[in-house]
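Can't paste images in this forum, so I'm doing it all in text. The chain is below; anyone willing to post the predicted structure tokens underneath?
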Amino acid sequence: MNFDGMWLPQDQDPRMQEGPTRGEKECLVGYLEHYRGTLALKCDGLDARQLATRAVPPSNISLLGLVRHMARVEQSWFRRVIEERMDIPRLFQDDDGGFDFPDADDDLVREAHDLWEAEIAYAREVLDRTDLDAVVDVHGEPTEVRDIIVHMIEEYARHCGHADLVRECVDGRTGQ
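Text version of the structure:
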């Protein structure tokens, strides 16, 4: 079914907010959630082979790689930086940031999505209890949490653009 190039009717889009945001934190978190949902939407309905397709040569970017990479990014900023838990090992440290992986199967896909969703859930908890004005150390520079959230929005927006291209190469699906 065609919805003017959209994946589903706009009133059924789970990323849409119910009304205007109130305040800076709600606005920033709303954009972050929108892009998290966009990446999930781009992966929806694909099998392991399709999710692992590296569709834009010579890049090794795939939808599965993006999910793994964003689990790494979520963990790094929320656990390691905001919570200052530098003692925990970075996810996919030896796997090119999550983009390199063995042959994909349903277990690898499930594991990647579970990990990504767990890191998002943890990040939400951190954001619930953290003030945007809080200052953390980022490579020796004092940085407000709000700057990290803006960076996360940028990171997701950039990779959702990659996901658009990969998904179009995989099955021709565009929009939303």
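DSSP finds five helices and two strands in the chain. The mean pLDDT is 89.
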